[in-house]
Design goal:
Elements lengths: L16 H5 L7 H5 L5 H11 L8 H28 L7 H10 L1 H6 L15 H20 L1
Helix pairs in contact: 3-4, 4-5
Length: 145
């Protein structure tokens, strides 16, 4: 005896096997926008951070994800170049520090202290020129005397 109205072979009530086979695969908002960063997660976090009414437009999350993805790719590319210059295959905090501080706009944007980043090497031009010229002139005078 079969009961009518229960789950059938397909496992879903009221659906035929053909209807299940033709079901669309869900596409994420990230893939629709052509992004790697998760638009849904950023939208959820934006709603949590919005204070009073928590209303955030859908395109705001896509825009924020695109901006974050661009900034991350920029920093990672510059840090990878710094690591490649030092003939190292792994990006370390030092490479991130050199990449961020070497770029004027990123340095202005990111004011954070990077743990293990060290300092950017800098010798004032006045010191370089003075020591270089002074030694050469002194060496010539000693040779002629």
């Amino acid at each position: 005896m079969e009961k009518s109205g229960g789950k059938g072979k397909a496992g879903k009530q009221g659906k035929s096997a053909k209807g299940l086979a033709q079901k669309k695969a869900s596409t994420t908002r990230s893939s629709k926008a052509g992004l790697t960063f998760p638009v849904g997660r950023i939208h959820r976090l934006l709603k949590q951070w919005a204070f009073r009414n928590g209303r955030v437009g859908g395109t705001a999350a896509v825009y924020a994800a695109a901006v974050l993805e661009y900034l991350c790719s920029e920093v990672i590319e510059l840090a990878g170049n710094a690591a490649q210059d030092m003939k190292v295959k792994r990006v370390a905090p030092r490479h991130l520090q050199l990449a961020i501080r070497g770029d004027e706009e990123l340095d202005h944007l990111i004011k954070a202290t990077i743990s293990g980043g060290g300092v950017v090497p800098y010798i004032h031009k006045f010191l370089l020129n003075k020591t270089g010229k002074g030694k050469k002139k002194g060496a010539k005078e000693e040779a002629t005397s």
